[in-house]
Amino acid sequence: MIAPRPLTAEAFRPFGDVLEATGEPDRIINQGLCGRFHDRARLDFGDGRAGVSIFEAKPRSLPYRLEMVERHPAGSQAFVPMSHAPFLVIVAEGAGARPGPVHAFLSEPGQAINLLRGTWHGVLTPLHAPGLFAVIDRIGDGANLEEHWYDHPLTIG
Ligand SMILES: NC(=O)N[C@@H](O)C(=O)O
Ligand code: NI
């Protein structure tokens, strides 16, 4: 069984970015009433363009049966919760044809993620309703989805 670890920017850095309001803001704006944590995601949309979509995903529960991971070779993908709830983040190492070791993370309320272009990941996995997320990813022509189905599903949790 793969046990989820707490989601931290440091641990997640090889796979993507953790978006959160921690530490001092980079800028104080709006007459001092707002802190801006500026430009925190390594976005990459290749030859496409940025799109914002809304996902309404069914909540899952732990232990979670991981049947597949996927990756987007043409662009990054960010998941921004629209509810104040943790969600499950699953990624796998490797840039080759097959994913490497799998890692699972449990987010804190208030954290969002941006997956780097080409990062193997489990699909969006909320753990609480409503599974509402804003998703920022590549809109464009051409294939942008590769899937790897495990012969024997992995257990997370
Ligand atoms: N297919 C799709 O739009 N979503 C997936 O890429 C996902 O990671 O959830
Ligand atoms: Ni995806």
TrEMBL record:
EC number(s) on file: 4.3.2.3
GO MF annotation: an example: ureidoglycolate lyase activity
Classification via InterPro entries: RmlC_Cupin_sf, UAH_cupin, Ureidogly_lyase, Ureidoglycolate_lyase_dom_sf
The reaction(s) this protein catalyses: (S)-ureidoglycolate = urea + glyoxylate
Cross-referenced Gene3D superfamilies: Ureidoglycolate hydrolase
One BP term from GO: purine nucleobase metabolic process
Keywords recorded for this protein, A-Z: Lyase, Purine metabolism
Class of this enzyme: lyase
One Pfam family recorded for the sequence: Ureidogly_lyase
SUPFAM superfamilies: RmlC-like cupins
PANTHER family: UREIDOGLYCOLATE HYDROLASE (PTHR21221), UREIDOGLYCOLATE LYASE (PTHR21221:SF1)
Subunit structure: Homodimer.
Protein name: Ureidoglycolate lyase
